[in-house]
Amino acid sequence: MWIAPTEGAKFWLGVVTEIKNRGVQDIFIACVDGLKGFPEAIETVFPQAQVQLCIVHMIRHSLRYVSWKNRKDIASDLKTIYSAATADAAQEKLAKFRAKWDNQYPTIGESWERHWEDIIGFLAYPDHILRAIYTTNAIESINNNLRKLTKHRGAFPNDESVVKLLYLALRNVSKRWKLPIRNWKMALNQFAILFADRFPFGDD
């Protein structure tokens, strides 16, 4: 757990470096939500890692300034992009989306084009891996609980008191993690095939 007044490239490089120093030897795929400097930090410390932009965050960002009457249609059209069977098919769907919506919402198509390489990589993976990596929602759920906790407590005397509170909250959350990850064994088998030269066979 890390606390800092600002989040930038230097901060994230320190975080990822510490993660490696604490024993993480390799990262296959990292799903991130667009934090500035975070993807670059991951790629610096773990150069073989593929950084994947969270699709759910892209959708939320896309819908942020869309009128309510168009939200359902735009969300449906965006789904045709990220649910496409191949990268080429997804590119065609994006072109159709832009032809339909660029006059009203040009920034949506521009944003997807700008982040395309970090979005489309997940389509190269089998379905079970795809379901595990296309969103950071599990982490977001934890973060939301922590935000509510600190918000309701009011002011804190110092950073250490915040760290203690969040640490205890995370310990309580981890005790409730009893359900296995859905279809994890199948996803694990596919990871072993795709990353055979890096996969820790025989390790727990």
Structure description:
With 204 residues, the protein is mainly alpha-helical. Among the domains are: 59 residues; 39 residues, no CATH class. α1 runs parallel beside α2, α3 runs antiparallel to α6 and α4 runs antiparallel to α5.
Concise summary:
With 204 residues, the chain is mainly alpha-helical. It contains eleven helices and two strands, in the order αβαβααααααααα. It has helices at residues 9-21, 38-45, 55-63, 68-82, 87-101, 106-114, 116-120, 127-133, 137-153, 159-175, 184-194, and strands at 29-32, 50-53.
Keywords:
single chain, 204 residues, mainly alpha, two-stranded parallel sheet, 11 helices, 2 strands, 4% strand, globular
**H and E order:** HEHEHHHHHHHHH
Strand order in the largest sheet: 1-2
- Helical residue percent band: 55-70%
Q: How many distinct helices?
A: 11
Layout of secondary structure:
Blueprint: H1 9-21, E1 29-32, H2 38-45, E2 50-53, H3 55-63, H4 68-82, H5 87-101, H6 106-114, H7 116-120, H8 127-133, H9 137-153, H10 159-175, H11 184-194
Parallel strand pairs: 1-2
Helix pairs in contact: 1-2, 3-6, 4-5, 5-6, 8-11, 9-10
